[in-house]
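Hey,
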Amino acid sequence: MSKILIIDDERAIRRALREIFEFEQFEVDEAENGKQGLEKALAQSYDIIFCDIKMPELDGMEVLEGITKANIDVPVIMISGHGNIETAVQAIRNGAFDFIEKPLDLNRILVTIRNARDKSVLVEETKQLKTTVKRFKGSSIIGETEPIIHIKEMIEKVGPSDARVLITGENGTGKELVARSLHDYSNRKKMSFIEVNCAAIPAELIESELFGHEKGAFTSAVKDKKGKFELASGGTLFLDEIGDMSASAQAKVLRALQENVIQRVGGERDIKVDCRVVAATNKDLRKEIAEGRFREDLYHRLAVILIHVPSLNDRREDIPLLADHFMTLICAEHGIPRKSFTEDAMEALKLINWTGNIRELRNIVERLIILGGQSISSQEVQTFANPNI
């Protein structure tokens, strides 16, 4: 549920706006002056802020300036009964999303809210794209071997559904790319794809990362924070390396999958979420269950559809296609003319024991591009494939 803060010294205005917003299924918070409003904006997370301009202690422009200086990315809509063109222009220049004159018009308010929500979605998507665009630029599932063809067919069939998917495979095989492809084939593709690496987050922080926290939940919780489940609502949540998740977090994820509700750390309020969960692991979860490290009930919730990504050693016939793909991509990234592999060099690549899988292949191709000649030979592959040169 989206949350709106109303900052206005007139009780009647606050009450009227509250009735409108609650009818539209928003959670509403109020502040009766600029100082109180700025304190709340700095301490809690809001999706939209409505702020009057003429107020005691701090006026609306000062509140807007404080929000902007704190780098809080929230649409601020300024309202005033003493507005003019100059005031509106100044508010927009200072970072306001929009300016509405009193008396407030219901239709104008609803249109502005809709536009502000659309902007918030776009901002969040842009953040996610910026973090992944370099890694996924020009990426696709490359390969023509039978296991890869089977994976592509599975993605086309399963992608449009909301079925949960568990992706298994060794490190570096491309499990994240499969997860993103499932999202791109889904009806949620216009919404966010949120990734959580469960192995990279300390056990004591994983619950806050997944479910968010309330202000004061722990020492460093200076304001409310949305978790990944909330941020992914409407889209896809990718839980990478789920086998490394703590037992406590596993129990809470199970509840979220069963009931589609979460509770923030330090909070008591149930928050509804609607995200498709795709998980991945390099571990044998059946073995983890037998040894008491993973919940069997969570496994069955996640493994509605199973997709196994083969190791590169099990699909050596795809190495020429992958090497050529990385050659094109990396040369473009470095801004150098495209190089090529000799036939002997391709055969030499096929003979390597790829313990690091596709990730290792990409690294070696990049090393060969930087250190090798225009036409990369088998001798160069044998020399530069060793990372200890």
